[in-house]
Every structure is written in C-alpha cells, then in structure tokens.
Amino acid sequence: MYGWTGVILRVDLSSGAITREPTNMRDAKLFIGARGLAAKLLTDEISPRTDALSPGNKLIFAPGPLSGTFAPSMGRYDVVTKSPLTGAIAASNSGGTFGPELKFAGYDMLVIEGRAKHPSFLWINNEEVEIREAGELWGNMVPETTEMVRALTDEDARVACIGPAGEKLSLVANIMNDMHRAAGRSGVGAVMGSKNLKAIAVVGTRPIKVANPKAFEKFVKIARQKISENPVGGTGLRVYGTNVLVNILNQVGAFPTRNFKDGYFPSADKIGGESLTSNHLLRPKGCFACTISCGRVTKVVNPKYAGKGEGPEYETAWGFGADCGIDNLDAINKANYLCNELGLDTISIASTIACAMDMYTDEVISIEDTGGLEIRFGDAETMVELVRLTGLRKGFGNQLAEGSYRLAEKYGHPEYSMSVKKQEMPAYDPRGVQGIGLQYATSNRGGCHVRGYTISPEVLGTPFKMDQHATEGKADVVITFQNLGAALDSTGACLFTTFGIGADELAALLSAVTGVHYSPADFMKAGDRIWNLERQWNLKVGMTSADDSLPTRMLKDPIPTGPSRGKVNHLHEMLPEYYKLRGWDAEGIPTEEKLKELALA
Amino acid sequence: MMIRYFAMLRDATHRSEQMWDSPVSSLGELLIALCKSYGPEFHKWVVDEKGNLGGLSIILVNGTDYRHLGGLDAHLNENDVIAIFPPVAGG
Lengths: 601, 91
Known about the structure:
The complex is a heterodimer of chains A (about 600) and B (about 90).
Chain A: E1 7-12, E2 18-22, H1 25-31, H2 34-45, E3 59-63, E4 77-82, E5 89-94, H3 98-104, E6 109-113, E7 120-125, E8 128-133, H4 142-152, E9 158-161, H5 164-167, E10 175-177, E11 181-183, H6 188-194, E12 197-203, H7 213-229, H8 231-240, H9 245-251, H10 273-279, E13 281-285, E14 295-300, E15 307-310, H11 314-320, H12 329-342, H13 346-361, H14 380-392, H15 397-400, H16 404-410, E16 419-420, E17 423-424, H17 434-442, H18 455-460, H19 474-491, H20 503-514, H21 520-541, H22 552-556, H23 571-582, H24 592-597
Parallel strand pairs in A: 1-6, 7-12
Antiparallel strand pairs in A: 1-2, 3-4, 3-6, 4-5, 7-8, 9-10, 9-12, 10-11, 13-14, 14-15, 16-17
Helix pairs in contact in A: 1-2, 2-19, 2-21, 7-20, 11-13, 12-14, 13-16, 17-19, 17-23, 19-21, 19-23, 20-21
Chain B: E1 2-5, H1 8-13, E2 17-19, H2 27-38, H3 40-46, E3 58-61, E4 64-65, E5 81-85
Parallel strand pairs in B: 1-5
Antiparallel strand pairs in B: 1-2, 3-4, 3-5
Helix pairs in contact in B: 2-3
C-alpha cells in the first residue's frame, strides 16, 4: 500500500468497541483521501436526517495520501461530520502535525461513533488504542488539556482536543490541534463535545510508503522550487502572514465593516499585517513539512490585553477588527488567544458579536437582553469579554454560542446574520467582489472563502486578473476553484501551495506517492466528484436552491463608502450559469448524466 | 497625487505614503520614476523576471486595479490616490 495506509480505525464510544478495517481502495482512488474520502464514508453511513449532536452522527479525522510525506506544505487533515451549525456536511481543515501523526500511526481515517457514557479521551499509540476516562481534563482550556493529555500519555504525543466551548456544545466551537491550529468551521467542536470526547492523543512511528520514490523526489523538488520562487509563497506569506490582506481588501473597497454595513474601514492599517509584524510578531511558524510559514507567533505586552499565542490570521483580524468597528490590534490578538484557548471558531464568533452589535445599535436587542452589557461597535473591551462569555456559555454568551443566525432569528430579525446556510461569511465583501459572492452562495458548507478562493484572480491577480466588479466569466472560475480546492484538500495539501503550484504538480505528486496515475484532468474530475457528492448529500438533508443565496443586505444595500461605493452583489445574474456549467438542472440538482459521468450514479 | 505603499514596499521606501508633485503622464512613467528614486529594493517588487514593469505588483488607482484602466498607460491626475502592493496574498 502506497500513500494510503489501507487501514481505517473505528472507535465506538457507546460500546467501547475498537476495530480496524481495510480502506475501500475503489473509493480511495475516486475520492483521494481526507475531505473526499471521509465525505464518501460519512454519506454512505449516516442518514442525512441524523441529528448532528446525537450519537448517530460520526466524527471523522482524515489525513490525505500526501499528509506525512516530505512534499512541501502538505501535512493537513480534515474533520468531516454533519455540521450542527448548518445541517450540511462539514469538512474542517487544519494544519500542524496531528494529521501526519495519524498517518504515522497507520490510519487513513479515524472514525468516531456513538457517545461515551462519561467524559473520555482517546489514546492512539500505533496499533494500541485505548478509550480512557477524561477525569480532570474536562473543563480545561485547550493549552492545559494538551499538556495534561501529554502527561498522561506520551510527552511527544500530538493532541487534538476541544475547549470549554466544545464541551458546552457551542455551535461555533472548533477542534484545536497542536494547541494553536484549528479545524475551525461549522461547529465540529460541538460534535466532539456531544460524544463526550475531550481529546485524542496520537503517537505514530510507522513510515509512509511511496510507490515511486525517484519520481516523488523529483516532483517534490519541483514543487518546493516553484513555491519558493513565487513571491507570495516564497516571501510574502512568511514575512507578513495572511493578515497582509487587510490593506489590500480595504483599498479595493471590499473589506466588510461593522457587520457588513460598509465595505471600507478608514483605520484598517492599524490592524493589518504590517502593524502586526511591527508590533506583535515574535516569529513566523510553519506546519508539518511547510516551506511557507504563514503562521504567526505573537505577543501582546499591553497589560489590558496581555498574552502570547498564535495568530491572528487575516480573517480573525478582520472579524474582531473592522467587522466589530475595532482598530485595536492588542484587543484583536487577545480575542484570538481566547478563541484558541476556549476552542471557538474566530470567524463565526467574531461575526456573531458583530451581529449583536448591529442589533443593539438598531435597538433590536436591548440591555435587558444582553445581561446588562452595552454592546456597541468599536468597544474593544466588551468584544473581548463577549468572546470569554461565549466560550463558557455564560450570560449573553449563552446566546452568542448558537451563532449569528440563531441569535438574530430569536429576536425575529434573521436578516442581521451575515451568513450563508447559517454559517458566517468571512472577510471579503461580496458586493465589492462579485465571484466570491457566488462562491459563498454555492459553498457546500455555507459562508466560506477557502471552498473556492476566487479572490486570487478577482483581486490579487493570480494566476490571472479578472475585474472584481464584473459578473461575466465568474461562474466558470468559481467552479474551477471549487473543484481544485476539493481535490487539493483531499490530498492533504495546504491551499497556499497554489501560490506556486497547481493541478499539474499536485497530480504528479499524488501519482508518484500512490502509484495510481492521476492526470491533471483526473485530479480536477476527482474534485468535481467530491463537490457533487457533498452537494447531493446537502440536497438530501433538505437544502434547495433557495439556500444558494446571500444575506439580503448583500443583494439590496449598496456599499455606502470607499472604492466600491454603490455596489451590490448580482448573484442572480451568475447563479443560473453556475448551475448550467455544473451540469445541474435549473433547481441546482445534479442531472443523472452528470452523476454517471462522475461515477456517482 | 498621493502614493501609498504597503508590506515590503514600506521597507523599500521607509514610508507608508507620500505626496508626489512632479508631473507624470502615466502610471508607467510614475513607476519608472519610483524605481529610480528607491533603487533595487523597490525595483524587485514591481518588475517581474521578464522585465515587465508592474508585472508582479497589485497597483490601484483610486481603488481600481490599473489593469482595468488601460494598464501602464493609465493616465494619472493630481488628485489620484495610488496604492502599490508587492505580490502578497493570504486567505
């Protein structure tokens, strides 16, 4: 067996049964691994009607065939489950070292089933697997949990765990690994909490076999060189991190501000990557086998917000910054550290706080509703406090823990939630960048940028430049980026490798490591297949074309200031073409012909 | 006109913005003048390996990418705001 380990580890927390079974190699070839292969298993094994927080849901940890190899920046894994936030399929991707370690332990996937009677943790030491009682671990923050689990197992164990937010079933809870890396989106931490599973510790010492070592070495060298020679992959991300985007998006007028009321934030420069590098950065940090090192190890010395940790990424600086009307980078860092400690998705909770600020401003909610807190745009202290309260489900934080859609709906105004399929949109205003609006609307996991990062051509001009305000040609490019992302995620590669390489190089690496020939066209077709598999399942959950939409504010309220002033998103000019090019009918349902073409019928 | 610099271009120019008073007829002419003024550290981020001026950078004129304004021939006015980014990205 090459690339894949050929083994799935299944742990039933209800019965305590621990079993191993062979990986279905037909599925592995068609769906690659990680996001794709785990989606196939999940959709084969659970009913779309399953309650996401019930024992019937399954929680899958899946590295890809390239995870754990020395291919550059390809050590990622996915957490796949039914999302309690959206009801759709969740595939939440993370870096660090946890995914490769799972491969070294010998597993293509770890499938968690059922629900433990008592809080538990899982200890995987190669073939030795134990379910242990969590005891005093329960209730602890992520860093303390990680240290305690290592003390109980092995000091070199790689640990993925939930914080208090996951324990308390917050729908915006994440799963943290290696203390600072997050499988962030779609509330996957709540699923882990619902299973009474606090942590997973892994030690693996087995090699990953490569089918064609000489070819693999050659393609690794090519990939490394292309990434290092690319000014973005080789220099920009290491020097400034992802947060360098703040000024770019602001300067093109697509930087969502005050819960997407505006698309331009006059003091954006105070929260951008340049300011972070000057004032907070201790060092860049990379994940397993990474040659890019976009991670930020940072420190805040201001006593009010003092702390040390990793981040913020661009999305986080935007969310706790411009989206909350805040330009205090010390406070933004602090909120980020708290999220990592409590186990909260920074995008969703930041947007939920911005939603609450918006509702408070418009008197949809009052001080009686917020437990005595005045929640105003620009109030950094209150923002940080709300993060803490949410992670612990205390006070008004108990309402924020449900995410923005349920918060706004509770008060009769769901239109205040800047979400798609109930998942909060990230840091690109779809009124100022048309294609990303189509991507948000059609994303299989709701509001999300990495499902199809059209910001590359629409704003950054890589690998080609498109007019950000045009709708022509956007359906085609959204589909290409969605398919590429689905295939890439499924290999274990980091999305940032695309700032250097593409389908040609990824297909060559995948072929060399697995011994299964993937042409670039095969690779892209696998992405198309994975996308359609996820789509079909979401339709079975009950979603329809009506869910392929954007908040009314994006479609009706023009951006009031800045370079994109007067713009709205023209989703309905793009969506019919998108369906047609996807091979779907007018209602967004994949045709039989399309499903046959993708071996999904 | 106002020129704003970002990321590595702040290291190259030792400033985040400047007023530009000398007359230039086009964006290309401005970039040539800036390369001359700030030297190799500036030049390497705005000229690609094939020698194409602007080939690497993200350059905005009043918030619009220069490639949608006629490219390097884009005419500049005294009240324009030019934002120049080296090749950076994120996500």
